[in-house]
Amino acid sequence: MPSIRANGINLFYEEEGDGYPLVFLHGWPGDHAMWLFQTPVFSAHYRVIVPDLRGHGRSEKPVGGYDMRTLAKDLNGLLDELEVEKAFVVGGSFGGAIGQRFVIDYPEKVRAAVWVNSATFPIGDDLMDTPTGERLPFVEVYLRPLRSGGYLQFWNTVWKPTLNDSPPYLFSKDFASSNLGGYIVKSFFEDRYARLNNDPAPLIAIIESLKKETDLIEAGLRGSAVPAMIIAREGGEEQHKSLPMVEYREIPNSGFFCYMEQPEAFNDALSQFLSKH
Question: What domains sit in the chain, N to C, each tagged with a CATH number?
């Protein structure tokens, strides 16, 4: 995997295919491999670029620089170094939030944007149910186990218990219990990301930075001329309510990582949108 110097840090990325540039931005706490069901499909028609974001995967993990403006600047630097003047930008969750900031700060670089299960900011006061029955700001729910026991403590106490949730959160219960779903859960979330996030400091810094984000990103997006679409998990219509002017597609029988759980439906929705723009 090549590395490139962008915005003062080393960013790792993979690139495959020819054609119009198509960038996929992964979510927290993952890496470019989250797009394993998209890269080989879309690289048949597009120049697919999948980076590891600052603090993730094999990219550099500095002490700071995890605010949205800096992360969007990282992407801008990456595209400049790759001599990409304009691209489709698709982001999942945290990557989608960066993609939203990128649309606001660098609209001339975006042909069209897709945000997958991505909240708009600020989100520091959003509440989440804990395994103990408390209802706390989600940043605190995430930070407690990360600080006390690292990534695996977070996985085992916050995300793993949701695999039985209905409606689904990360993945639907049926998928999580299937052979493919079980493989993805173990190989990605219990093995790969435990290894890549052995030092939880960057993950903690990212979550802490979310508490400081005060820009109303959705306000900036409402005035944008960049074509955009929201793709959401089952029951994700709340995201569309905040940005009713963009297109919306919901992936049935799926959770947060719908592009891993229902890749055929996700790829079809994305293909249709890209072909229009």
Answer: 3-276 (3.40.50.1820)
